[in-house]
Specification:
Shape of chain A: globular
Structural class of chain A: alpha/beta
Strand order of the largest sheet of chain A: 5-4-3-6-1-7-11-10
CATH topology of chain A: Dihydrofolate Reductase, subunit A
Radius of gyration of chain A: 16 Å
Oligomer: homodimer
Number of strands of chain A: 11
CATH architecture of chain A: 3-Layer(aba) Sandwich
Largest interface: A-B, 32 and 32 residues
Largest sheet of chain A: 8 strands, mixed
Strand content of chain A: 25-35%
CATH class of chain A: Alpha Beta
Helix content of chain A: 10-25%
């Protein structure tokens, strides 16, 4: 089976975005000159799976940031919601997380970048996440979209790497045990 | 005015305890031989302020762990709820966070250890916390008492120290900017 991998920036209070999906709290960090390993992480994965919320946020960026294929998990979006210039690079599917993994396997994709709070929560609960590469951002925002949600049982983690950047971002990497 | 200081162990998903205040997830960590600086932190503060939930948890320990005076903020407990052997070491007050700080100042206490999820949240919202010394524990428990709650505005932090322990605990220290 393919494995799910998470790379996310979160506030110290655990949010990946405000309720309206905005990332202003992240964009304002003074991280110039820092290499947080995002490009290396993207090189290491075969496909990006995200929810419709993350998809809309990324669509709002000046340029589409991904070279790797993107699969949007959504019950509401259809192919008609994909801008023409992204045809062939982004597709919408309405599959369960398990069925997504089976579909990825059928395509020969092994390492899945699982992106977005709701999507990470659903994959994690099903045991489909192998590791986390988190950037803890030195801010508290009090409300928003959480990375972690309720679980059916505890999940033990193994810390595999830490790195503190001058901006105050702290990278923490964990494997799901 | 005195300053509020937080030292807490939290799960990676942001909980200081389960809903029933239990710390089994923390106690099971293999931290033998590690110095997390708890004794040094206690030496550095003048008084411990906690809520009734934390107080009941600490009462359940085999021995009372604190030499420093403890002030329990509670609207429901009274002096009669303090075990006789703790008389003179623990007192119950029904003050607001601001009035607690004024009372501490009147007593000449400058550095206040603010302990417990609900109490930290109320002090933080009022701008009464100066810094955090957190131990991020490598586990997700999915539900419990959160360290951070809603805020009236963002709180920017400055990372001042990090340290990763063999157990996988990561110490992160922040100053409230």
């Amino acid at each position: 089976m393919p494995t799910g991998h998470v790379m996310m920036a979160i506030t110290l209070d655990g949010y990946v975005a405000r309720k309206d999906h905005s990332l202003d709290w992240l964009m304002k960090q003074n991280t110039a000159g820092e290499n947080h390993g995002f490009a290396e992480f993207l090189d290491s994965i075969d496909v990006i799976v995200m929810g419709s919320g993350s998809f809309r946020t990324v669509l709002g960026f000046d340029t589409w940031p991904y070279k790797k294929p993107v699969v949007v998990l959504s019950q509401s979006l259809t192919g008609a919601d994909i801008p023409p210039e992204l045809t062939g690079r982004v597709e919408v599917v309405a599959l369960t997380p398990q069925d997504v993994m089976i579909e990825m396997e059928n395509r020969g994709w092994q390492r899945i970048y699982v992106d977005g709070g709701a999507i990470v929560q659903s994959f994690l609960k099903l045991g489909l996440i192998s590791d986390f590469k988190l950037a803890i951002v030195p801010i508290l925002i009090g409300d928003g979209i959480r990375l972690f949600g309720d679980l059916t049982s505890d999940i033990d983690l193994k810390l595999t790497h830490t790195n503190a950047f001058p901006s105050g971002l702290v990278e923490l990497r964990y494997k799901v045990v």
